[in-house]
Amino acid sequence: MDIWSKIRADYIAGGISHRELSKKYGVGLTQIAKHSREEGWVKLREQKRLKYDAKVVDLVASREAKQANELCRVAEKLLRKVDMLGDLITTPRDLRDLTAAVKDIREILSIKGARDIREQEARIDKLLHDAKEKEQTAPEIRIVMTPELEELAK
Questions:
Q1: What is the pTM of this model?
Q2: With contact defined as beta carbons under 8 Å apart, do 142 and 11 qualify?
Q3: How far apart are CA 141 and CA 118, in angstroms?
């Protein structure tokens, strides 16, 4: 791998500026800026960041979906058990307690309605948009990726 491929790879990976690359590789800042401009490093870095962001969002959404599914499964199981207990209701207090439990379970089951999902997607889109605006106004953003997340970005 030639030096320019290494410099480009470091820049695209994020977390390092042209100035830091210049010091690290002993190459002039002007030369790095020229290569960056001619080869579109900024665009390549943005594409990699967006790909990484999308994978992180997908990973988080997948985990949340699994948690929501498990919660629904448990709530449905509880509701079936509550139905079986219906015959054991003997006092008004028992009935109130059972009614409260059923309401709680129904509330749990409706946590991730379609509207909630759309609102959550809109919030994620806004966060991504805001992050992109901040990146455009900021001179540099450092992205530090753990080995686990680096593997996801491939």
A1: 0.45
A2: no
A3: 29
Length of the chain: 154
Domain boundaries along the sequence of the chain: 1-39, 45-153
Which candidate, 114, 131, 120, 108, places its Cα nearest to that of 61? Answer: 120
Q: Assess contact for 7 and 25: CB atoms under 8 A.
A: yes
Interior angle at CA 112, CA 110 and CA 114, nearest 5: 100
pLDDT of residue 153: 62
The pair of structure tokens assigned to 35 is 């290569």
CB 29 within 8 A of CB 22: yes
Helix then strand then coil, % of the chain, to nearest 5: 80, 0, 20
Which ranges of 86-113 would DSSP assign to H, the alpha helix? 92-109
Question: Per the structure block, which two tokens stand in for 143?
Answer: 């992205």
Number of separate helices (H) and strands (E) present in the chain:
7, 0
| Nearest CA-CA partner of 110 in 83, 72, 65, 62 | 72
Q: Could you report the per-residue pLDDT of 111-143, keeping only the tens digit for each?
A: 655 666 777 777 777 777 776 666 566 555 556
- Phi and psi at 144, nearest 5°, equal -110, 120
